[in-house]
Amino acid sequence: MRDGITIGKMLVLAGLLLMQGCAAPQPSPDLLAPTEAQTKLRSFQSRTFDVADRKVAMRGVIAALQDLGFIIERANEPLGLVTAARFAEPDNRSVVGVTVTVRPQADGRTMVRANAIFNNTPIDDPKVYQNFFATLARSLFINKEE
Amino acid sequence: MQPTEFFELTAESPANKAMQSRLFETGNEKELLSASAAVLQDLGFQVDDIVREVGMVRAVKERSAREHGQDISHFFVALFTLGYVGIPVDLQQKITAVLVARPTDYAGMRSEVRVTFYRVVWKGEGHFERNQIPPGEQRMEMIYDPVIYQQFFAKLSKAVFLEAHTL
Fold first, then answer.
1. A77 touches chain B (CB under 8 A)
2. How much is the pLDDT for A98?
3. Domains of chain A
4. Which residue of B lies nearest to A58 if distances are taken between CA atoms?
5. In this predicted model, which residue has the larger pLDDT, B90 or A5?
């Protein structure tokens, strides 16, 4: 009889533990709220250029990425979207991916935003984006000059 | 390679650009794109995607990557080691070409065409010390053989009846 009670208690305990295990962890309410780091990252990743035409800006982005050895994977003109990737040579198993969006601003200029990842890890080093925008500026400037 | 170098021009960048690009004395980008797609088709590629607004063509071809004599050497290695040593073979490769045409002046009388080839090779399907190696392991690389680019531009130049100028 005593054993029965003990087993019963243990079963109840096990059941409670199981139920506890089933409850999914609640996402914190500020899951989508911007953090300070994200705001900073966004400012590294964006730059505005003195180009009015989205097509011209997109072609500049594509040319800059090609100069940097990237392979253009997708381009969508109506959305101003370019996706590209390259191998982190000589390591041919690692891939650097980048998504660039080009959006005309109200003031007649164009905002370019780049997001880069290295093997599925986002790159948050501002230097990386500075390098990209330096090449892009050169590419857009050459286009203008000729 | 350090992450900061991913978006930096290297010493080889200008040479790669020269190898992968040619200038054509035409403003007819549509004609350049359709001729490029036709040349890629002639070379056995399947056109995958065309985005006319930005002048891009993407084409793919899948071929066996077995090299000449590979099977013979594998046979002898297997024979002399009584089948204990096998070398995994390259089985398949997928070659992709991404081509972009763009005007290089405001008057629209000159266009630059830049093409990039790269390939993915599936390694596997073989034996190594009596263990079967399943296909699936893969390796990717850019193609830097200048002859491939020269051949491509020679064909494109013929297709558009225009001379292909180097940069």
1. yes
2. 95
3. 34-145 (3.30.310.80)
4. B54
5. A5
When scoring A67, A77, A121 by the number of chain B Cβ atoms within 10 A, the one with the most, hence best to mutate, is A67
Chain A: residue nearest B106 by CA?
Answer: A146
Res B98: pLDDT: 95
Within 13 Å of residue B110, how many CA atoms lie on the same side as its CB? 14
* CB spacing of A72 vs B3 below 8 angstroms: no
Report if residue B110 sits inside a domain.
yes
Q: What is the pLDDT of residues B66-98, one digit of tens each?
A: 666 666 666 666 667 665 655 555 567 889 999
A136 touches chain B (CB under 8 A): no
Q: Give A99→chain B minimum CA distance, Å.
A: 13
Q: How many domains does chain B have?
A: 1
Q: pTM for the whole thing?
A: 0.76
- 3-class DSSP state for residue A109? coil
Q: Does B51 touch chain A (CB under 8 A)?
A: yes
Q: What is the sign, positive or negative, of the torsion defined by CA atoms of B158, B163, B166, B167?
A: negative
Q: Is the ipTM of this complex over 0.85?
A: no
- Tokens describing residue A140: 């857009």
B165 lies in some domain: no
Residues of chain B with pLDDT under 50: none
Axis-axis angle for helices A54-67, B13-20 (nearest 10): 110
